[in-house]
Amino acid sequence: MHEGGNGEGHRAGSGGPGSDVDRSAVNQEFLALERELTVLLRRARASSGEMVREVHPDLESSAYGLLVRLEERGRQRATELAAYIGVGKATMSRQLRALEELGLVAREPDPADGRAWLVHLTEEGRVRFRTVRDARRARYVRELASWDSEEVAELARLLRRLNRGVEQG
């Protein structure tokens, strides 16, 4: 993703650490990163919107992340989901209510705390989500067909590292 370079992310110039030449190269690297992430995130938002509408045409694009989390982690409290997604309790309640009305998620009392509820995918929600997720994965396979499996693994590793860093804030 390093435009005009050899893709190795080398720093131009001969200045030592902290020199204006070194800072300029770092700034260019981060500008390139920002540009590529902006494009990626814009496309990801659009793609998530398309994918979630395939699960159900009445869903908001933000619902896809909830479905992913419930598929991966199983039953969760709404507060856990809200913290993971990064939204408030009211927003999460509204999103979960919409998913529940469509029959994609259900709530049950939390056996560890009778005052709380656990949210989970219904069978219908699981089937619809997996169908869309499999289509999304097939799309990635097509789009990255010219990549070596090691490159795909490296991209996944770097994105995981970035996400963990962002989560730790």
Structural class: mainly alpha
> Distance between termini?
24 Å
The number of distinct β-strands equals: 3
The neighbouring-strand order within the major sheet is 1-3-2
Description:
This protein has 169 residues and is mainly alpha-helical. The chain has six helices and three strands. Strands 1-3-2 form a three-stranded antiparallel β-sheet. Strand 2 (105-110) and strand 3 (113-121) form a beta hairpin. Helix 1 (20-55) crosses helix 5 (123-143) and helix 3 packs across helix 4. The two termini are 24 Å apart. The model is unreliable at 1-13 (pLDDT under 50).
Write the layout of secondary structure elements.
Blueprint: H1 20-55, H2 63-73, E1 76-77, H3 78-85, H4 89-101, E2 105-110, E3 113-121, H5 123-143, H6 149-168
Antiparallel strand pairs: 1-3, 2-3
Helix pairs in contact: 1-5, 3-4
Summary?
The chain is mainly alpha-helical and 169 residues long. The chain is built from six helices and three strands; from the N terminus they run ααβααββαα.
Offer a few descriptive terms.
169 residues; mainly alpha; three-stranded antiparallel sheet; 6 helices; 3 strands; 64% helix; disordered N terminus
